[in-house]
Amino acid sequence: MTEEEFQSLKDTWVKEPSSGKKEYCIGCYSKDDWEFIHEELKKDGSLEDNIPTSSVTVTDDKLNSDTRGVYLLTDAEAEDLKKHSRVQYVHINTAAYPGTYKTNPDDFCASEPLSPKQRYSTTVKHTRDVGADTGETLLSSYLPTIPNSSLLNRGSYQLLRHTKKIDSWNGQNDTTIIESDTDQYGTGEDVDLIVCDQDMWFGHIEFQNPALISNIKQSNNSSASSTSAPINYIGGNVLRSGYSSSSTTGTCDLLDLVLDAPYYIDPAWFEADAGNRLTTRWDGTTVPVESVARSWWSNSSQRSSEFASAGTITSSSITNYTRAGSNGSNTAYHTGAGSHGTPCASQAYGRQYGWAYNANKWFLNLYGTNSIGFENGFDIQKIFHQNKPVNPKYGTKDPTVSSNSWGFRQRVFIFPTFLSGYYYFRQGLTGGTGVSWSYPSSMPAFMNNFHYQTIRAPEYVDGFSTLTAGNELIESGVIFVTAAGNQNQKQVQSNHPDYNNYFASTASTNFVDAKTYSAYSEFSSVYTYNSLNRPGFPQQIGVDRTTTPYTYKTISIGALDDDFTGSGQERKADYSNMGNTIDCWASADMTLSATDDNTSTRYNRFDAYYTYNSSNSVESEDRTFNGTSSACPITAGLIATKVQYNRDWTYADVKNWLSNTVGDLTTTYFYAGTEATTATDSNWSDDFNLQGASPRIIYDARTKETITMTITGEDLKFTGDMTILNN
Question: How far is 675 from 690, CA to CA, in rounded Å?
């Protein structure tokens, strides 16, 4: 429970009296000492020094103990008794006064450490700019053809940058290689982190437990090498040995939400006919037979009665969902055509590149080849979140964080869509007279700055089944982290003057009539508003329009550039969306990640091959990764390390932590620019302009409240236990 809720309850309990007799615990050095003190305290008229002369009431003589008891004393009597040579301690019996001394039980569950812990036992190499971007020279010392052991666990900048508020490269060249460990407070343990993306490769060494694989070799496959894991890395997945009746422990950390979660939710069903319903995955994990897992989702009779009403997924999209297509194995890359899922997963919870390397690691093929689809994907996550087992360590279900590096887009100002029309800038919803424009000669600046001739899909009109499913997912309590988009598009809150900016094909068109059918064939009967500066889909899921401004419940992440301004400030990536709906910024441009074989440019790693169960793996490689697609999983992983210690957090708590604890950087460190205020304002052409967004870069700030003090004067004296934290 929150501190406020606990305090309200605490106020109803017995409190310590301000005066008079109180319960005190008294302890002595030996049995003989305690028997002596006990008898003297009970006497009426004791002559013993430091003992009250009047008889003392015994409230608990603790017959189970030889050296202690509880007695009623005044504060003065307690202080005097402490001086007796046979008395070891005298202190208030806090158990008698819970209204004064009771601690929130949540404080005893997974307490956040006072200081961050080392990730590795040695330093590793980090650089902010690998130099592989367009027009740049590759930093060959960091990405050589044959990496040596010094490049084991190289970390790019998505780890080191977010360990503290001020950038470690501040005042240095962005290509500087920093030798450093990466300290962090949490690792995501006991948090379900779901990466929702295209099909991906589970067999990458990034997702394998090094203790359970062998014969790890370099990229040239000529000599045996080693790989290492973070110091407190757990390894394996939640279906490891000891889960239910399973006796297997797999090498792979990942599980698929469609194909593996049914066993996690409903072990009794699968184990009732284990020979036909369970199998051993390529890595040694006991998992459901694929067809049985799919049936569990689609047919309520193919599960335990306890879950008969949990909800079903009846779409034909589930039929073609397979391990080979969506996950791959150690000896085969996934057969799906996607290349986006593997880097996203590695940056969320990978052993080398992710923040939450001890999370419960789930993957969902949401929109790739033979994917489950968006509406079904929302429903599956909701069902999983609501029906997963209670973690016996805490007596509650583990929190769920969902990472979503995708978004609906709309092509604009390009055939066959709008090549001319009327725009409405800060004219409200009733339109009035629009201003005529044509592409490209007379487009106003605020419509001419979009990258790739697309915008993040304008707001979808309500009455759309997929949107409803998204709303239900948010309301179930899943923390939904989303990429803001890569269109250089301003996205603002509902009370911002740009919120209702839109375009139409005719003059004098009201906002509600300015709409277009969705660009996606599966949603071709659904309208989107022709809004230009509202959060689109999926940022809009779960929005509460009863508040002012509207409450957007998704966590929207902007992309941080790897390069600095000429003045040495950090800056947004030139393509990143911006505006005051962006909750924070995270590393994005030219980060490093794991990859599969579907990426054109790949880089060798030191630990490229491994052997499991006498089978040699295909090659594991790395790639550079960009965009809000990168910023999103990095942030989701970091958020999971915070939810680890705050298991009741909602989206609102995450946003409050970002706003009030992580906080904003000054313009000394982060370039903000000047927000544009007119349709033709020259500030629209500044691609690094935050356009009113907070200059807030997420970092590993502690979640507990800290107090800032300024202390001045002479002959100052401090006593007692103190902890000084420097975030």
Answer: 7
